[in-house]
Amino acid sequence: MQIYEIMGWIGTILTAVYLIPQVIKVIKTKNTKDISYYSIIILIIASLIWIIYGLLTPIPQPQVYITNIFQAIFSTIILVVKIICLKESKKE
C-alpha cells in the first residue's frame, strides 16, 4: 500500500466519524435548535453526489464513497431528529 493510499484511508476514517459526536449529542439532548436545516440538507445532497462520483469514476474510489455514505447516514439521522424535535415542540 502506497503512502497516498494510507493517507486516503486515514482521511476516510476521520471524515466518516466526525459527525458521530454530534449525532450522539443530538440524540441525547434532543436539542437541534441551533442546527440549520439548510446546512444538513446541503451536506446530504453533497454526500450523495460524492457517492455517485466515487462509484462512477473509471477507477472506483472507495475512500470517496465510503466517507460520504457515513456522512449521508449521520446527517440524515440529525435531520430526522431535528424534524421530530420540531414536531414535538409544536405539540406543546
UniProtKB/TrEMBL annotation:
Any signal peptide, and if so, which residues?
none
In this record, what's one Pfam family? PQ-loop
- Taxonomically, the superkingdom here is Bacteria
Question: Which spans are transmembrane here?
Answer: 6-24, 36-56, 68-86
Please provide the record's keywords in A-Z order: Membrane, Transmembrane, Transmembrane helix
Q: Which locations, inside or outside the cell, does it occupy?
A: Membrane
What do the Gene Ontology cellular component annotations say?
membrane
Please report the record's description of how this protein sits within the membrane: Multi-pass membrane protein
Q: What is this protein called?
A: MtN3 and saliva related transmembrane protein
- Record organism: Spiroplasma cantharicola
